[in-house]
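In line with agreed milestones, the collection of sequences with tokenised folds has grown. A representative record is reproduced below.
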Amino acid sequence: MPPMRRIFLILSVVLAPVAVLAAMVAADRWFGGPGRGYDYVITVDLPQGDASLGLPKIEGPMDASRPLVVIDAGHGGKDPGAGAGQIKEKALTLMLAQALRDELLRAGGVRVALTRSDDRYLVLAERSAIARRLGAHLFISIHADSTSAESGASGATVYTLSAKGSNEAAEKIAARENAADVVNGVKVADQSDTVSAILVDLSQRETQARSEAFANLVVREGRGRLPFREGAAQSAAFAVLKSPDLPSVLFESGYINNQDDAGRLLSPEGRRTFAEVTAQAIRIYFARSDAQAAPLVLP
């Protein structure tokens, strides 16, 4: 075969697929259907990232200088909490949280948000994380305890964080509440620190002092109006309170399996008293705090 013919055949083999591909691209540009070709490309403007996406609504004064209280209704969704029969802790805590929110909004002066306003499940870390992302000044987690009928336990208890509970009962209660992150024996979420140990320690000391000050105010304001199991605020290693820079308390409103406590908390009058006592303690706490630029005027 002559050399020129051999070169022509080789070029034909190499260039033929290229020519076919070029023809297909040209045809697609000119005759392609919708969704094909450059004339049919659709552009969509995506929203910018929003740090507040999915966070609960903040209610109250449209003034960011006003203090923000985040109220956490304990348990929810697949985690019913304490209680047997029709009375479930998750429903009771939501009613108490809503009553406290309504009382705070009625009196004015503070902004309020609920970690949940319906029957949804939140892991413990999410609850305080919501408060921190919203920039809260105070975090209150509401619960209702349960114990054996033989114990005869009754009354409310206000807890702050400690590495070790103030008594054996406090440690047992904390262990039960912390188990809300364990479903069918599987741990749902782990705690993790994002700042250095030294900064955490310094921040926690000030935060702990503020938490204890508020807890003591709740007990003081509730005397004669709310039955307390203990005469003073208690401490325990509650996971939901482990935020290094956010004053936090866990309010065990009573024992859900105690007839008197359950009747009190389920009644409109009992919930109103709970809300009024806690709201008054909140207002006094902020009025005393030199961290607030706009101190509240107490009624």
Remarks:
- Helices lie at 3-31, 89-107, 124-134, 168-178, 197-222, 259-266, 268-288.
- The longest strand covers residues 138-145.
